[in-house]
Amino acid sequence: MFVLVNLKTYPCDPVAIAEAVSDVNERTDARLAVAPQAAHLERVAETGAETWGQHVDPIEHGSNTGHTLAESVADAGAVGTLINHSERREKLADIDGAIRAADRADLETVVCANNPAQIGAAAALEPDAVAVEPPELIGTGTPVSQADPDIVEDAVAAAETVADDVSVLCGAGISTGDDVVAAGELGTEGVLLASGVAKADDPTAALEDLVAPL
Amino acid sequence: MFVLVNLKTYPCDPVAIAEAVSDVNERTDARLAVAPQAAHLERVAETGAETWGQHVDPIEHGSNTGHTLAESVADAGAVGTLINHSERREKLADIDGAIRAADRADLETVVCANNPAQIGAAAALEPDAVAVEPPELIGTGTPVSQADPDIVEDAVAAAETVADDVSVLCGAGISTGDDVVAAGELGTEGVLLASGVAKADDPTAALEDLVAPL
Amino acid sequence: MFVLVNLKTYPCDPVAIAEAVSDVNERTDARLAVAPQAAHLERVAETGAETWGQHVDPIEHGSNTGHTLAESVADAGAVGTLINHSERREKLADIDGAIRAADRADLETVVCANNPAQIGAAAALEPDAVAVEPPELIGTGTPVSQADPDIVEDAVAAAETVADDVSVLCGAGISTGDDVVAAGELGTEGVLLASGVAKADDPTAALEDLVAPL
Amino acid sequence: MFVLVNLKTYPCDPVAIAEAVSDVNERTDARLAVAPQAAHLERVAETGAETWGQHVDPIEHGSNTGHTLAESVADAGAVGTLINHSERREKLADIDGAIRAADRADLETVVCANNPAQIGAAAALEPDAVAVEPPELIGTGTPVSQADPDIVEDAVAAAETVADDVSVLCGAGISTGDDVVAAGELGTEGVLLASGVAKADDPTAALEDLVAPL
């Protein structure tokens, strides 16, 4: 299972969490990664933790003040990027453009979406993975795998119909190892989570709990 | 074949064009319709021409100043609506929401997109139809069916893979009956066009030319 | 005082409310107007009520599918338009462009904004009027003139500093004649309101109450 | 004079340019600074050059995936930020929010705008400075101070009317020391430039030319 910790713009120490990710990653079969803000990418990547961007724009090198260029995200040490997170919803044409930009910069891509229909749409654009995150469950502590297992299974089915080589992740409310196991049993290959680790008093312990049952 | 005439915000007489659409529609096996601006929907629908909206927002009745409500578009006499035209690109989540809003108001839906990957994505959201319109060909007078037939065939294939009951239209540069025939031969069930009719000195003659070879 | 009734996308009968506006307008010194959705402009204007748009885009005639053209809003019978309502926030450059578009089409302009600083900014663009509407009070039934009189007075002062010929209106929570009087005493020349009339069982009675103390 | 070098998403070496900025800054009375992409802020700040962000979002710490937090821009070493560059136009309410966010993080603010009316609007929001950049001149090599001196003088006047403690900069087409001098003679306190330095074969020489006549 892939466990991607999104630090959003939380008031956490991104380096300390990255070190916890790097540390726990060495002691588990799961694959752990961390997605800091763009301004923190370099210092996070320097910890050795697998580092992801939270967003890239559908642009190339050029006159794009204030944008996030895939090449610069990669150059700062990231190996992948989220696209279209529910807190950064994008136009369909721009999701397509952002995937092309990320491909060009050799960044792995996870496109987020709200529901199975949108997951099918995202999968049709051929990112490496899609992630179903019902916005109403984000940050609740109630895992999507328990609150709405159908939405996860339907998302897996929708992605498979459209493009069978696109992985499916799920997110929203994930905070325990049982949630991760349940996500796997519903057919996903990983989870997105945020506050469960980023706001934990002891991120290392939180991560150990998450991967313990795997 | 379905021929949908988009009046955009052209300085044309929407009623005169609607009357031409209504008139020619009675003398052909093709299905003709016209999509005026929201403020012109009523007077266009009163001509008896099949009337479409150019856009609906992903909203319900409520506090949405300055938005386009599907129910109001239907109530003004429209039977369908474009969504995500290249001049009004929308977020993926909002295309999904706009299709649901249109379904609720019994409006037929055509979701536009730039290329085969985005057509597959649009089809996964299950509108009634999708329309491939390469933005670089819009308004050129060079029909997509001639300039880039592969993009049309690939769009038809992409839609079919994802959802085989979603029709495919094409647009951009369509202005003659031969263009419409060519579009049909590439597997589409209709065309979107705009300036070819809306800017014609004689819209009735332009429409007759379009449907003559059908 | 100017009383502008915004119908948003409420499930009301726009013609019935327009008739009430027209009717009450004849029996008061206040100036009453109604702002329906774009698709309802024509039928509302036909009642003889002063009719306003809820929004115009910063565009000219041309290739702008799904946009709201100032000329078409005027052509459908409107004499003015809201711009930048808190439910349709616009880019600074587009507010400027929308005012120019409205000027071109002889539409009167009211630019909405959240707070005194933004009111000053809006006034610098030289619309006919600005309207301060704290978003947190919209639809509450608690009038801004009572909940936060300072914000109204500060908005009047901010507009005056920047451009002394720009009128100031206020909105949010206005529902009684006392609210309108209070708004006038704070230095405004009118009010925006919505649910107080649009959701009233008897819009004529609601309007009569609003203008009774004037 | 303040000379702010915007690196946009150009394919330049941000550290090499920052070193040139730092180097030339020590040998001139002008104040030089450099604005790299967010992902490059740390490595640029480490050179000792005065470092600026290209954009901040109107947010606080919290659930804002893919956004640019003022605190993180400051934490990475920046002392100021551009807001509303013509390549990243923002809603009026969000420009206001971004200035508040930057103030909170002790970042100096320069709000860009297209024309004198928008400059007045931006000044009403009380940033530290505003910058007038006619979009049609950006990247042309024809300096705004020569192509359209009136727009610069009108912008200075507009800002002064609204808020006399807001500095005015100008940009677009600036590439020589004469352009910088001309900008000062028109009443501005600095210039924004980009390609003239970022695409120069020898950034140090380009910067020396810029400040030589000062």
From TrEMBL, chains A, B, C, D:
What GO terms in the biological process aspect are recorded for it?
Answer: gluconeogenesis; glycolytic process
A Pfam entry, by short name:
TIM
Q: Which UniProt keywords apply?
A: Cytoplasm, Gluconeogenesis, Glycolysis, Isomerase
GO cellular-component term (any)? cytoplasm
What HAMAP family does its record include? TIM_A
Q: Which family does it belong to?
A: Belongs to the triosephosphate isomerase family.
Protein name per Swiss-Prot or TrEMBL:
Triosephosphate isomerase
Subcellular location field: Cytoplasm
Q: Which reaction does it catalyse?
A: D-glyceraldehyde 3-phosphate = dihydroxyacetone phosphate
Annotated Gene Ontology MF terms?
Answer: triose-phosphate isomerase activity
Matching InterPro entries: Aldolase_TIM (IPR013785), TIM_sf (IPR035990), Triosephosphate_isomerase (IPR000652), Triosephosphate_isomerase_arc (IPR022891), Triosephosphate_isomerase_AS (IPR020861)
Locate the residues binding substrate.
N6, L7, K8, I138, G173, A194, S195
Q: Function of this protein?
A: Involved in the gluconeogenesis. Catalyzes stereospecifically the conversion of dihydroxyacetone phosphate (DHAP) to D-glyceraldehyde-3-phosphate (G3P).
Q: What EC number(s) does this enzyme carry?
A: 5.3.1.1
